């Protein structure tokens, strides 16, 4: 091997000297007789190749397959060189097919570095070795292209009619901006593949590409049905985790997103991020607050945006002309070369903070009962400020838990949107947003998410327990698995996403929630804690004040909540039903077509819609009812409305689904019944008898059960037990 290397370097050096130092005929001008260093290097490189071709295959082969200390082996590339070279192969083709050319042959250092000054690099400086050989010299680069999931690659603009767009959230993600980005990504990917690079595209499932596509079909229906922003977040986190786990397989990771920024610390030197001027209705300047958090990230923008972006982002590594006058692929190859040069010259200073680990010895001490805990409660950044201004079960629980933990004497910090109010210490996310921001502007919606993720990553080590209520931080959980936990407030319905993070410690809000989770996920459930309520917000009503006995129904006006079942129940019982509900925009058509006619026309004497009610009206509405109807058409993991009704003394009549069996004790605090979504089922259920049974129940006993099992204090104590259990188990 040493002999082969020495021989090759000798040939290269001789060829270089012949090229760079060759004399011109006397009749040539002095200018012609003095070739530039670049020209000499190019001529020398070509001479070197000619000399290399003369080497026997048995000497050339080991040079081509040697793995350098800094290179990462790629089975797909090494498979081409099993140890001997087919005699029919062209040595030049084999040479330039090696992904480790610049390491194995050191052709750049033995001839002359093609990039003499990284800071002064310009397209005119390249190619330097020979005509079109710069790309060849780095071919095949292993490149990952990460595309936005808002649109397929290439885009399918004719796929979405204006009518269908109204059914999709976020609406902006199907505008011209998303199509423009997808077109750019497609042009780049196909260009890179055509030039021989090994390209992997991370994109939506309906993409069509010559590159290797990594995606998941379960996310393919996003643009065909109504989805909530949280599901889009799941899709992006799933994709970024796939990228993170494969990062060492690539030479370049090129992002056309911005949501990835908190997740690339381990390999930031290999990344390029293209920021677009209108990413999903948001101006690129709206992302400037992120520049201070991620000063080390290599950024690419369009030529005309360089000035305004460079004022904030400190590492603008290149600009792109997209007017068609220059080849897009060639422009990006120059940028990739600059990035590789930065890596070789060790110009990277890791200004991004390393994730610090919590002191394990200290955590073990806190696992002992009686020790006060230092707790960081992390609110979901796509929620409203806390306490929530509008109804929201999860937001209410986060706020209530925080306040109750403070009352128990723990040192609590709440990470929440700016403008939140709490008796705990407030760690503000300095952005103003709301639960519906994603509908109008994806950038504004994601800014607090990204800030949230980065702040948790940097500060988690300062706390004994970090308690999450949203899965957007799952990628970073690996840094603090021994003292962090996530409460899942909804069913575990996204098996692809949760399956990827099965080691995350989860707390369920009911035992039934765990039972209903697909067993194949094998999630790390560390406990189950029922929700609790502030009993001071609910006054006990011993004797309902009612001119006419009525049943109460309360919730969001969506099909899954089963208000139509409650209406059928009331009609069958011949009893008045009062409905307090928020009409959700997404389901207005369903409300107008299916529910409103039952209220305003057919059964106006029995069914009354009282509108959306606040805390002031809620107590009277629930407390003066004969019974509270809980009629879900899905397996709700808890059902807070039942607890609130029982806190006033009102019994519950509930469909036996989800966590109802853990809450309703038949003939003690209510009754439950089996129900299938079929009008005829009430032929087999004596609904009048159900009403008669709950009317006889002891309302004071019902209130007492709530005080014992579902107070905020009890909920908080149960959470602390799980916290200590988690710390204790990680001490073993």
Could you characterize what this model shows?
The protein is α/β, with parallel strands linked by helices and 732 residues long. It folds into four domains: 2-137, no CATH class; 142-344, Glycogen Phosphorylase B (Rossmann fold, 3-Layer(aba) Sandwich), CATH 3.40.50.2000; 360-528, Glycogen Phosphorylase B (Rossmann fold); 539-710, Glycogen Phosphorylase B (Rossmann fold). It is built from 28 helices and 20 strands. The strands form three sheets. Strands 3-2-1-4-5-6-7 form a seven-stranded parallel sheet, sandwiched between helices. α1 packs across α3 (37-53). The longest helix has 19 residues, at 2-20. It is globular. Mean pLDDT is 78; it is low at 1-14, 18-136, 158-175 and 220-228. GO terms for molecular function: glycosyltransferase activity. Residues 181-258, 392-492 form the Glycosyltransferase subfamily 4-like N-terminal domain.
Number of strands: 20
Number of helices: 28
Identify the CATH class of the largest domain.
Alpha Beta
| Named CATH topology of the largest domain | Rossmann fold
Second CATH tier, the architecture of the largest domain: 3-Layer(aba) Sandwich
Content of β-strand: 5-15%
Distance between the terminal alpha carbons, to the nearest Å? 50 Å
Largest sheet properties: 7 strands, parallel
Strand order in the sheet with the most strands: 3-2-1-4-5-6-7
Whole-number mean pLDDT: 78
Task: Name the overall outline.
Answer: globular
Note poorly predicted spans. 1-14, 18-136, 158-175, 220-228
Radius of gyration, in Å, reads 32 Å
Number of domains: 4
Domain Glycosyl transferase family: 539-681
GO molecular function: glycosyltransferase activity
Domain Glycosyltransferase subfamily 4-like N-terminal: 181-258, 392-492
Pfam family, one: Glyco_transf_4
